[in-house]
Amino acid sequence: MKNILLALAILLASQNLYAYNSKGMKVYKKLCVSCHGSPFRGAKMHTVLEWEMIYDESDTAIKDLHKSDKEAMEILNDSYFTKKKQSYLKKFLIGSAKDAGSVPGCDGNYCGY
Questions:
Q1: Could you tell me if residue 3 is inside a domain?
Q2: What is the mean pLDDT of the segment spanning 30-34?
Q3: Residues 6 or more apart from 97 whose CB is under 8 A from it?
Q4: Where does the record locate the signal sequence feature (predicted)?
């Protein structure tokens, strides 16, 4: 019985590792909505593995992807986009990727796709 409870606890903890991240959604809404649309739609542009690969390449992966877009670079070079906010955004994008298994719903921050 203890093994079953331990396995269940591990399963629930691992699911919450990349769960919905409201701080990341706020960063997305401030920086990304104008080009990529609603938060969940933008996050579903890639799979979990693709987002992880993008972020594993370097600390500046998002900036590297947008370097040819002048408007995007102005937004990403803003003082608002700190390392802490980058980590919030990463967690949100991975947790809301198209194969992450998260189903967007209504809450105080955002409703739907």
A1: no
A2: 91
A3: 43, 44, 46, 47, 48, 50, 51
A4: 1-19
Cα–Cα–Cα angle for 33, 86, 101, nearest 5°?
Answer: 70
Instruction: Note whether residue 39 is domain-resident.
Output: yes
Indicate the SS3 state at residue 107.
Answer: coil
Report the 3 state secondary structure along 17-80.
Answer: HCCCCHHHHHHHHHHCHHHHCCHHHHHCCCCHHHHHHHHHHCCCHHHHHCCCCHHHHHHHCCCC
* C-beta of residue 94 within 8 angstroms of C-beta of residue 19: no
Q: What tokens appear for 66 in the block?
A: 């947008």
Indicate the number of domains in the chain: 1
Question: Which run of H or of E encompasses 100?
Answer: none
pLDDT of residue 18 exceeding 50? no
User: pTM for this one?
Assistant: 0.72
* Structural domain containing residue 44: 20-113
Residue 42 has pLDDT above 80, yes or no: yes
Q: Which two tokens stand for residue 15?
A: 């699911």
CB atoms within 10 A of CB 49: 11
